[in-house]
Amino acid sequence: MRLPSFPTILRAFYTVRILPASSPNALLSLNRSTLLKSMPSVPFIGSLFSSSPSSKKMESFAVQKSDDEWQAILSKDQFRVLREKGTEAPFTGTYDKHMPAEGVYGCAGCGAPLYKANHKFKSGCGWPAYFDNIPGAVTRHTDRTFGMSRTEIVCSNCGGHLGHVFKGEGYPTPTDERHCVNSVSLKFQKDDPVVEGEKGVEKGGSKV
User: Fold this and answer.
1) Choosing from 107, 125, 155, 180, which is the catalytic residue?
2) Among this protein's residues, is 158 annotated catalytic?
3) Are 148 and 39 in contact (CB under 8 A)?
């Protein structure tokens, strides 16, 4: 029998250990696939399972800012996740259980529309889950940090780290994909900026 790798064991242990005491049934909602793919976020341990900043491809995004400029407009947690590829703890994000009938989830860094409300579904993984994104809004990278192969997703407008996408987990969705996104990377809008001409989206350093 092949034993699980040390990173897999450590990741699974951390996910179970930090489940909120007020949610004793939370563990029951985690299927095996979700549990093994969960991503911790405490200092040091979290750094083992987040994407490596050095792994980011040198791409030309419409919005370009220095670290100082990003730090001036983002909160500490937003900067850690969006620009340093960190991960928030599961079951703690604002949008984990947020299930609106309509609206759009945009990038917390630049405001670009990423996901529509009807893309969101209940996965029980502890992070907001979407089965698809607005066409062209999300860019995928292969993340091979620390001996694992995952698909990282970033905002196509500013390159901000969103999370990872997993396929073939068996969820009853049209794509059988789960975009596992950090709440702190998102900002929800009740109105649909895609329909309204993407007002408030920053492109190349200016608002349109």
Assistant:
1) 180
2) no
3) no
